[in-house]
Design goal:
It is a single chain. With about 650 residues, the protein is α+β, with helices and mostly antiparallel strands. It is built from 23 helices and 20 strands. The strands form four sheets. Strands 5, 6, 7, 8, 9, 10 and 11 form a seven-stranded antiparallel beta sheet that branches. A seven-stranded mixed beta sheet has the order 12-20-19-18-13-16-17, sandwiched between helices. A hairpin with a 6-residue loop joins strand 14 and strand 15. The longest helix has about 35 residues. The two termini are about 35 Å apart.
Length: about 650
């Protein structure tokens, strides 16, 4: 899978355009474009240069992603937008003064005050247009490439208001126009209000990636390279982290972050691994123990042999996982994607029909244009495009902070739809410390060893976790290869009344397949023998202490070995799903009500109308509301 940065996208229509362009290439198996992170992931055999050229032909710019560059650019864009907005507001205030203080020039010695007022308004409006020319550049490019976007709607609304006002001003100068029909203020307000919304949206979007940025900051930039000096002593040299290679010896002092994944070869201490697991309980470290990048040595001094460095560390893997989950598409997003693909052309058509309907039913040009402009500037494809990804990004970020890693957006959505939770016994529900018990034969008194796991005991949180899962309306099933008696004993202790026992490793997937006929199945396991079942389930969850094979096969990884985190994962997914549905409802209902209101549908019956400037204000807030609603997921607690 290759990852790219994409520049120039302004709304969901842009996303649909880029995805169509890349999907059409030979060798591309799957493509997902994220408006939130300005990124694109592509699966297939197509050369990056061909993909980049396809994006360019679609009217945008693409480059191969190198360490999350797209995320860092958001802050820079917000800073530029803020400066432009401040200047735009100053000139908009001048426009307001000229518009609502019509008698000001009457008191001067100017012979033609109305003409002078109009010329001044036009000049100020031109300044605002120049400041916000990116709307026009992007909007016109969208029309040129037959891919109109949100900027097309904005530039059309503002541009039509300006051109119409310019034409009226020419008529005023020749003595045939009405100076009260100038729309220069509307032209400037549309751009300024949309810019307000864009700034609020940029700031809110920036907050959705806070968890990812926090993870990135955890990686130390330097390391203390330890050089043996004899007699168990070491000398140290501070080096750039990029110069550290596998098998290098690294000294870590109390209070410092671990710069690599490694194995302790000397010293002892306590490490805070909460950055990876969400748990702040200090973990003792001594010779032979493993340490992980970004965790903190709270006490002691360690000499560590680097086993994984750079992009191979556990932290780098987590960052990739969170980034890919946030940038990916959840199945629920398909509805919004389909609508977004045709949204802007449809809105442009509605605006044209609105103008013609009002004009040819006997209304003047002024009112007809006002209605059409209002339709253009109130319509918001951005809210639809952001509804799903912002919630997914926040949800996956919250999960990462709590030691829950979603490998993709689909797993974050699907686990919340679970109906049946299948729990492996050994190592998942229990400690996994199996002791073979001895039994004595009554006939010949031979002492034979039986494959019984009576000494294996439940984890401290297993029973409570099962109780919570059942309270959440989930059916809980225990799946094990153990014999009937020990299996039922463990299940009873955990509060599970449905047990499938005596299952061979290869048969676990078959049992999961049977359960899938009853509902959506989540399989939780930790061993190599669980791998096939994890893949067969609708969603596979690997307990963090499990084998690499199980972790690779799973859709979700729990960094801790707590069953309680299964319930936490499902609750977090359900909350994220709820926010996605709320966002989609808001995005659709906003446009369903807003567009007819702007078109004047409610004027005959209720006298309700929407001036273009208020339409622009509504559009500017719609995306902001969607993003802020997603950010409430940050309040989630275990």
């Amino acid at each position: 899978m290759d990852r790219y940065n994409v520049k120039g996208m302004s709304c969901a229509a842009c996303v649909a355009r880029v995805e169509r362009a890349v999907n059409a290439l030979d060798g591309v198996e799957n493509v997902e474009v994220s408006l939130l992170t300005n990124s694109m992931t592509v699966e297939g055999t197509t050369e990056p240069s061909i993909i980049i050229e396809a994006v360019k032909k679609a009217g945008y710019k693409a480059s191969v992603d190198k360490s999350g560059k797209a995320l860092s650019e958001d802050g820079e864009d917000a800073s530029k937008l803020r400066r432009k907005l401040i200047v735009s507001f100053v000139f908009l205030a001048v426009l307001f003064f000229l518009e609502f203080n019509k008698n000001y020039l009457m008191s001067t010695q100017v012979a033609t005050p109305y003409i002078m007022r109009g010329l001044l308004q036009m000049a100020v409006a031109v300044v605002i247009i120049v400041l916000n020319r990116h709307f026009f550049v992007s909007g016109i490019k969208g029309i040129k490439n037959l891919a109109p976007n949100m900027d097309t709607l904005v530039s059309l609304g503002s541009g039509i208001a300006f051109i119409y006002s310019f034409a009226i001003l020419l008529l005023v100068i020749t003595g045939h126009g009405n100076e009260n029909m100038l729309y220069f203020v509307t032209s400037g307000m549309i751009l300024t209000f949309i810019s307000i919304g864009k700034l609020l949206e940029a700031r809110a979007k920036d907050r959705t990636t806070d968890a990812l940025k926090s993870l990135m900051k955890l990686a130390p930039k330097t390391a203390l390279k330890a050089i043996p000096a004899g007699n168990g002593e070491y000398t140290c040299e501070e080096v750039d982290i990029d110069n550290v290679v596998k098998n290098d010896l690294i000294m870590i002092k109390a209070g410092n972050h671990m710069p690599v994944d490694g194995r302790v070869i000397s010293g002892e201490g306590y490490a805070d691994e909460s950055s990876l697991t969400g748990e702040s309980v200090p973990i003792p470290k001594t010779i032979g123990d493993e340490v992980y990048t970004s965790t903190t040595l709270m006490k002691g001094t360690l000499i560590v042999e680097a086993t994984h460095v750079g992009e191979e560390t556990s932290l780098a893997g987590i960052i990739r996982m969170v980034a890919e989950a946030g940038a990916g598409k959840a199945p629920i997003a398909k509805i919004a994607d389909k609508v977004a693909g045709i949204f802007v052309p449809v809105v442009m058509g509605i605006a044209l029909v609105t103008f013609l309907a009002w004009f040819f039913t006997g209304h003047d040009l002024n009112l007809s244009l006002a209605r059409a402009i209002a339709v253009l500037v109130i319509s918001c494809p951005c809210a639809m495009g952001l509804a799903t990804p912002v919630a997914i990004m926040v949800g996956s970020g919250v999960g990462a902070k709590k030691g829950i890693l979603f490998k993709d957006a689909a797993s974050l959505e699907n686990v919340g739809r679970a109906q049946i939770v299948v729990l492996d016994k050994t190592g998942t529900l229990t400690e996994g410390k199996i002791v073979l018990a001895e039994e004595v034969s009554d006939t010949d008194k031979d002492r034979t060893k039986a494959n019984d796991t009576t000494a294996d005991k439940l984890k401290p949180d297993s029973a409570e976790a099962v109780r919570i899962l059942r309270e959440m309306g989930l059916q809980v099933v225990m799946l094990t290869g153990d014999k009937e008696e020990p299996a039922k004993r463990i299940a009873a202790g955990a509060g599970i009344d449905r047990v499938v026992f005596g299952v061979k490793p290869g048969g676990k997937a078959d049992e999961v397949k049977k359960l899938k006929k009853e509902g959506k199945v989540v399989m939780v396991g930790d061993g190599i023998n669980d791998a096939v079942a994890l893949v067969e389930a609708d969603v596979g969850i690997a307990i963090g202490a499990g084998k690499d094979v199980a972790i690779d096969a799973a859709d979700i990884v729990l960094m801790n070995s707590r069953v309680m985190d299964v319930a936490t994962t499902i609750r977090l997914s359900r909350l994220t799903l709820k926010k996605i549905k709320e966002n989609l409802f808001w995005a659709f209902i906003y446009n369903i009500i807003g567009i007819p209101l702007a078109a004047g549908v409610f004027i005959p019956a209720f006298g309700l109308e929407l001036p273009p400037m208020f339409g622009a204000a509504a559009m500017s807030l719609s995306s902001f509301i969607v993003v802020m609603n997603a950010l409430t997921i940050n309040r989630f607690r275990r």
